[in-house]
Write a structure and sequence with these properties.
Blueprint lengths: L18 H14 L7 H5 L5 H12 L10 H14 L3 H5 L7 H25 L20 H23 L12 H7 L11 H34 L4 H6 L10 H6 L6 H20 L6 H9 L1 H7 L1
The structure holds a DNA duplex (21 and 21 nucleotides).
Protein name: Transcription factor MYB30
Subcellular location: Nucleus
Keywords: DNA-binding, Nucleus, Repeat
DNA sequence: AAGATGGACAACCGCCGAGGT
DNA sequence: CACCTCGGCGGTTGTCCATCT
């Protein structure tokens, strides 16, 4: 018997949020800043539980959230951070400050995982080098001998390293939207030749139209918030609270602007990271190292040998 | 044209850890 | 030290919408 869910109380509304509810929540946060979620329903009159309010804010209303198509670079990072960190979406999201963990998780579960599985399936049929791999990247619970496990681990590290190099290369920033399939190829066996999958292009178009209608709604909230962000830019206590690893960047005008321009997400995450790093290194701990360290570690050949 | 199917995504649920009492 | 509350996280579900048959 666990603790009863906080949303079991009577009179608590569930389901999609209405614009009116959004405005109530945003107005309150405009005035008081995020946090103290427990108090929000009673203070605002919202018939929602505190968790629902927090989730709505962090995944949807929070300024600086980038919606819509994932760039090639973002895809690269997600694929390889997932390979490194597993399904730790909050950790992965901390390297993509404009994306929410929920967004990344959804993108992985509904799109990337299937693409990867499909790709590997094709290669398996061709009798290529990944014949021994488990197709499901997120549930690799196959028992294997230690030597094999080590080789697999090394392969994963090498793949991650290779892809990160690719993702970090400046020229890659210019090719964001025309070679999405390459991500998969970089992950899968390099000897594979049947890489003419075009399934993703239709999906991306689909996504684009969907996100348009969705964004128009979110943009209204974003515009509402924009004035507030300007107002609060100088004494932004919330940003120091939220802009840490494991949570997301908040209270940064740059976030709002960057969702509409072509600034690379990596560049952005780097800048955010450098701001956060000095004050938050102790919070990063053993699981999440600063981006530059991760990058360095991944790119450093000698670490691989040491590790193995 | 209508029903079936599948993809995308917002939201919920339950567990866990941190911090306060 | 035990208990409680709160916030965060990952897994899962529900719903909407587009496409297919």
């Amino acid at each position: 018997m666990g603790r009863p869910p906080c949303c079991d109380k009577e009179g608590i509304k569930k389901g999609p949020w209405t614009p009116e509810e959004d405005i109530l929540l945003v107005s309150y946060i405009q005035e008081h800043g995020p946090g103290n979620w427990k108090a929000i329903p009673s203070k605002t009159g919202l018939l929602r539980c505190s968790k629902s309010c927090r989730l709505r804010w962090t995944n949807y209303l929070r300024p600086g959230i980038k919606r819509g198509n994932f760039t090639n670079q973002e895809e690269n990072m997600i694929i390889h951070l997932q390979a490194l960190l597993g399904n730790r979406w909050a950790a992965i999201a901390s390297y993509l400050p404009q994306r929410t963990d929920n967004d990344i998780k959804n993108y992985w579960n509904t799109y990337l995982k299937k693409r990867l599985s499909k790709k590997l399936e094709e290669e398996k049929k061709d009798g290529s080098c990944l014949a021994n791999n488990n197709n499901d990247f997120s549930s690799q619970k196959v028992v294997m001998p230690r030597g094999q496990w080590e080789r697999r681990l090394q392969t994963d590290i090498n793949m991650a390293k290779k892809a990160l190099t690719h993702a970090l290369s400046p020229q890659n920033n210019n090719n964001n939207n025309n070679n999405n399939n390459n991500n998969i190829e970089s992950l899968s066996c390099s000897s594979s030749s049947n890489s003419n999958s075009n399934s993703c292009s239709s999906n991306n178009n689909n996504k684009a139209t969907q996100s348009l209608s969705y964004a128009s709604n979110a943009d209204n909230i974003a515009r509402l918030l924009k004035g507030w962000m300007k107002k609060n830019n100088n004494n932004d206590t919330a940003s120091s609270k939220e802009g840490i690893l494991g949570t997301k960047v908040f209270g940064n005008e740059e976030c709002l602007e960057s969702s509409n321009n072509t600034t690379s997400s990596l560049e952005f995450s780097h800048s955010i990271y450098s701001q956060q790093e000095e004050s938050k290194t102790e919070e990063i701990g053993q699981v999440l190292m600063p981006f530059h360290l991760l990058e360095k570690w991944l790119l450093d050949e000698t670490n691989i040998e040491k590790f193995i």
